[in-house]
Amino acid sequence: MRTDVGRGPLELLDLRGFTLPLRVFVKRETAAKGVRLADGPPPLPKAAIEAAKQAETPLPSGRGGL
């Protein structure tokens, strides 16, 4: 199905019943109080940390070291 005319791809999404959310991003100042926002990737599971301790090539050092 081509969507080169009209509103383009959004028109096809309307036909499928898709609606865009009103808000996609949340600004830091509007985040809930007491909720800490992550500055980096999520923490590794304990099993991954234990496996990294046994590996020949260790994990790079960073926040929250081994």
Automatic annotation (TrEMBL):
Entry superkingdom: Bacteria
Chain positions covered by the region annotation Disordered: 36-66
Entry protein name: ImcF domain-containing protein
Lineage of source species: Bacteria, Pseudomonadati, Pseudomonadota, Betaproteobacteria, Burkholderiales
